[in-house]
Amino acid sequence: MSGYILELRKLVGHRPLLQVGASVIVENSRGEILLEKRADNHCWGYAGGSVELDEAVEDAAKRELYEETGLIARELTLFGVFSGEGMHYVYPNGDEVSNVDIVFLCRQYDGTLRKQDSEVEQLGFFPTDSLPQPISPPNRIPLTRWVEQKKR
Q1: Distance CA 29, CA 152 (A)
Q2: Could you count the other beta carbons within 10 Å of the beta carbon of residue 22?
Q3: Is the pLDDT of residue 4 over 70?
Q4: Are 37 and 126 within 8 A, CB to CB?
Q5: Residue 103: is its pLDDT beyond 90?
């Protein structure tokens, strides 16, 4: 969790916060997607997290990708901005957020795949038709759109 969000939580407790996220859907050369099993809710999703104050969204996406997976994005392409009721989420600890998730696609990357032990239980690449379940609730809408676009 970002330092900014942690500081806000000290003031507001579990009440809903508007949270801006920067996330990355990584595709390998076979068209498979990199997913991580989250340590907090034990669900699968893509790499991402909160944007810090004054941080560029692209920089936040690259930072989160590296922290969680060990991969370095060479190029990011905007996939979409996701918000609204379907992006509302209550974390297992009771913290409530209304997410605005800015999601990028990354097909060009370097580095060695390694998980961030504090936030990630597992990492793996999966084909479009065999995504692991359950998918983390805040990632369902963007991943559904990604799968639909891959089928076209």
Answers
A1: 18
A2: 26
A3: yes
A4: no
A5: yes
Determine the 3-state secondary structure of 151 from DSSP.
helix
> How many residues does this entry show for the chain?
152
DSSP string of 120-141, one letter each residue:
EEEEEEE-GGG--SSBPGGGHH
Beta pairing partners, 33: 27, 126
Is a pLDDT exceeding 70 seen at residue 33?
yes
Q: What are phi and psi of 127, to 5 degrees?
A: -70, 155
Is the pTM here over 0.70, yes or no? yes
**Spatial separation of the C-alpha atoms in residues 134 and 119, rounded to whole Å:** 17
Identify the three-state secondary structure at position 112.
coil
**3-state SS string for 1-21:** CCHHHHHHHHHHCCCCEEEEE
Residue 119, judged by CB atoms within 10 A of its CB (0-12, 13-18, 19+), counts as middle
| Partners of 120 in the β-ladder | 38
pLDDT at 1: 60
Of all residues in the chain, the percent with pLDDT exceeding 90 is: 94
- Is pLDDT at 114 greater than 80 in this prediction? yes
Sheet holding 120-126, edge to edge: 44-45, 33-38, 120-126
Mean pLDDT of 91-110: 97
